[in-house]
Amino acid sequence: MNFLRERAGFIIIGFIGLAIVAFIVSDMFKASSPFLQDSKSKVGVIAGEDISYQDFNGKVEQNMDAMRQQMGGNVPPQMAGYAQEQAWNQLVQEIVFKKQTEKAGIEVGGEELFDLIQGKNPDPQIRKIFTNPQTGEFDSKSVVTFLKNMETNDPTGATKKQWLEFEKNLASNRSIQKYINMVSGAMYATSLELNQLNTSNTKLANAKIVMLPYSSVADAEIKVDESDIEKYYNDNKYKYKQKQDQRTIEYVVMDVVPSKEDSAAAQKDIQKIADDFKASTQDSLFYIANADTKAPLTFAKKAQLDAKLDTSLYNAPVGTVYGPYFENGSYKVAKLLGVKNLPDSVKARHILIGAQKGGLTPAGLAKADSLKKLVQSGKATFADLAKVNSDDPGSGAKGGELGYFGRNMMVPQFENAAFGGKAGDIVVVQTQFGTHLIEVQDQKNVSKAVKIAVVDRIFSPSQSSRQTAFAKANNFVAGIKDAKSFTEAAEKAKLSKRISDNLNATGSEIPGLESSREIIRWAFNAEKNDVSSVFETADKYVVAHLIQIREKGYVPLEYVKAEIEVAVKQEKKAEKLVAKANSAASGASSIDAVAGKLGASVQPLQGISFGNPIMDGAGMEPKLFGTIFGAQTGKISKAVAGEKGVYVFVVDNFTGPSPIADVKSFRRSVEMMQKQQSAAGTFEALQDKAKIVDNRGKFY
């Protein structure tokens, strides 16, 4: 079938999705020019290799083109950011691994590449691309057909260019996988490791604990000095290292509020639409011409309808109009266009005259009609004709049988023919795959369905309302000179300041603020304490103030001071509670006596394991669990400072560990886990070692 030609653009999108998990990367463009060597045109530097804007943007556009083909031409802004992020990840992975594979002498020869594409061991991406969507089976012959007809089917050469790029990436991916396999091949689980892991998972403990939560000490009782904060920062500096530049902004939002005149005009408009819709005799055309949000008009059953429409239209006469009504920011009018009894699933068989064999030409239609007449006249059976004539190898060999299938499993034209007819119907339809002769064999769970068209008009402020809001925003900015006046202006205008921290240069949006990419770009080009001009985002105007700049590397103490103060307070609370708990435990005859002295309760811990240090009500407590499994039974412990509080405990007993039932199987599972971890860890280590400069935020 020639669905391959239709899917040619999907080849690139196929390896985009596996860029990280499978380390598939795209080939780096080598073009350069004096202009591109200028540092201002560099998107970044990866392991000593300059990445020019022209080369990088070419890769972004490749990803975007593939997404457009997959999404019917419309790519949301979020997906555009994803295409750019994927292009960068691909380059980083390609370059850092390329240096290692070259050092190791790893390469992919012509015979190996042939085997990946046309041989007995096709790459998973080849299998995915050349799998028949109707049968779910890989079609090896289609690979050869695609390659032979590639230039004929696309004289522009675009498909060939994409394919050659894809081949390069298959080879690159295989080289990387060889390198990963070489590293992970060194992973081996020793008997000691197996026993330790088995013990941590299967040795169980029963204990009783007394907990003094940190919240039992008031913050006011704890004094934190500057020297305490500095010491904690220096001792724990590794916690405050970041890999990317970050910014923190505060901002105010001024909504563009529709006026009473806007509401009146919108209501008048939707009422006219309702009147015209009632009188319309060309409902589908009216819907297409007037709805702001368009979707295919299909039949839906009772449970699939919106509650309002279910109540008002499901049992109404055809032609009934409901509305106008307001819902989710839009004025709407709904009309019942038709009623049918439709099945939930259909059994059918088909004969495909593939597009690559002229299925979309008049000759293809004529052939399908002639086959239909042979079946209807009784001169031949459908099954026999399918085995000889169908270009769908999966179903053709089975007499065209597709079995039962539900909705949304076939392309729309095929589905409409199968669900819209009745058992025994033989129909001819065309899809992007070619011309199909379909026989509807059976239909299950036939029940009432209705087709409803909903014409909506998104309610938005008028230009006059926007101008009023913009003037207000400009007046707000005019009086701001510094951080203090920003706060004063916000209070005067009764606007709430919002904070957005840890912004990355390549972020597509500020959380909770649509279409805010330009604000992020501004933040990375502004100086600390700068105040922005007015930004427009959807139906809002935004003014931002840059309050913090964090360069990659160790975060300055001043930026994490508040966070550290909380941690130091907890340490000091722990010291206080540890002394209190140890005093109570000293000389105590039982854990109940300790609890009595502390005015706390005894909590049982039943069947806990070292490998899963989670305590009900407290969460992760690794230090407590580690101490428990190193303790003696029946002995009251010293105080342990955990994550949520200070603990004193006594171990009642231990059970296990259970013997390893199948050492070989256990070793295989442990080594598989180690190999998976080594694959991700290898790339992370190489990436950390490589010098990477990311300037994308200046260009996108």
From TrEMBL:
| TM region(s), chain numbering | 7-25
The cross-references to Pfam families, in alphabetical order and at most eight, read:
Rotamase_3, SurA_N_2
- List, alphabetically, the InterPro entries matched: PPIase_dom_sf, PPIase_PpiC, PPIase_PpiC_CS, PpiD_chaperone, Trigger_fact/SurA_dom_sf
| Gene Ontology CC entries for this record | plasma membrane
Keyword set, alphabetical order: Cell inner membrane, Cell membrane, Chaperone, Isomerase, Membrane, Rotamase, Transmembrane, Transmembrane helix
Q: Which PROSITE patterns match?
A: PPIC_PPIASE_1, PPIC_PPIASE_2
Primary site of residence: membrane
Compartments reported by the entry: Cell inner membrane
Q: Kindly give the PANTHER family that the UniProt entry links to this protein.
A: PEPTIDYL-PROLYL CIS-TRANS ISOMERASE D (PTHR47529), PERIPLASMIC CHAPERONE PPID (PTHR47529:SF1)
State the name under which the record lists this protein. Periplasmic chaperone PpiD
Q: Which organism is it from?
A: Solitalea agri
Q: What is the lineage of its organism?
A: Bacteria, Pseudomonadati, Bacteroidota, Sphingobacteriia, Sphingobacteriales
